[in-house]
Design brief:
Number of strands: 10
Distance between the termini: 103 Å
Keywords: Redox-active center
Structural class: alpha+beta
Largest sheet: 5 strands, mixed
Number of helices: 6
CATH class of the largest domain: Alpha Beta
Protein name: Thioredoxin domain-containing protein
Radius of gyration: 32 Å
Oligomer: single chain
Shape: elongated
Pfam families: Thioredoxin
Strand order of the largest sheet: 6-8-7-9-10
Family: Belongs to the thioredoxin family.
Number of domains: 2
Order of helices and strands: EEEEEEHEHEHEEHHH
Organism: Hibiscus sabdariffa
Helix content: 25-40%
CATH superfamily of the largest domain: Glutaredoxin
Length: about 270
């Protein structure tokens, strides 16, 4: 398996300079570069051979190397397997907000997962299957390891976790489930999966969540399209003016009736 590693080493019983037990002089001992086929595991490398010129003859000295993967073999990326065309990987909070706002009346499901989550890995094939069976729904995949700050702002603390959204209704439901409780996911799909019109623009995340993301530096306030920050459209102005005019006419009619009543009493 080809993989580049960033290695940090801790040497037990040795310094960079290894002293001989029979000599006062010290010599620099350079260790050869390390390589491993084991990804992300603790590697234990024995000392040089007993009796070596620049090594202590005492046994039991070993040093360990903790290897951290800088890349992961594509065959190891279970979260990328069997992905369908309606499954979209989210790379930023801005992309998440835009995806929700641009979904129109389509059902949107946000799948929060982590590569190291066993429950997420076990559930992934079933989610892919449900995505294929519901091509009109949009599945947004959020890697909580890559987007920790955003996930924290959205109060995601349990994995795997799902949120359902649709158009102007905004968030429909949210829950955590596993393979054992997949019925919760299927029930939510049955309830919210039917195609229907959604009047008004897509709501997406709550304003409080948007503001929290903005304060955490995940979003720019200038890019937010909050209803309270939108300019009034011509249609909105016409409706408002009509309501105002209707109110004025009602007041005028009430005043006229009151005046006639007063005149009849004179």
């Amino acid at each position: 398996m080809a993989c580049s590693l960033k290695c940090g080493s801790y040497v037990s019983g040795f310094n960079e300079t290894v002293s001989s037990s029979n000599s006062k002089a010290s010599t620099s001992n350079k260790f050869p570069p390390l390589s491993s086929d084991v990804l992300g595991k603790l590697l234990v490398v024995p000392d040089q051979k007993k009796g070596s010129r620049n090594c202590s003859s005492r046994t039991g000295n070993r040093f360990s190397v903790q290897a951290e993967a800088a890349c992961v073999s594509r065959s190891m990326r279970w979260w990328e397997k069997n992905r369908k065309t309606n499954m979209v990987k989210i790379h930023s909070a801005e992309q998440l907000v835009c995806s929700l706002q641009n979904a129109g009346g389509r059902l949107v499901i946000i799948d929060f997962y982590s590569p190291g989550c066993g429950g997420c890995k076990a559930l992934h094939p079933k989610i892919c299957q449900l995505a294929e069976q519901n091509p009109n729904a949009i599945f947004l995949e959020v890697n909580c390891e890559e987007l920790k700050n955003m996930s924290h702002c959205l109060n995601i603390h349990v994995l795997p976790f799902f949120r359902f959204y649709r158009g102007a209704e905004g968030r429909l439901c949210s829950f955590s489930c596993t393979n054992a409780t997949i019925k919760k996911f299927k029930d939510a799909l049955a309830k919210h999966g039917s195609n229907r019109c959604s009047l008004g623009p897509a709501k997406g995340l709550d304003e409080s969540e948007l503001m929290k993301l903005a304060s955490a530096g995940e979003l720019s306030l200038s890019s937010l399209q909050l209803p309270s920050l939108k300019e009034e459209t011509t249609e909105d102005l016409v409706i408002m003016r009509s309501m105002e005019l209707s109110g004025l006419l009602n007041n005028a009619e009430n005043n006229r009736m009151k005046l006639e009543k007063d005149c009849a009493l004179l």
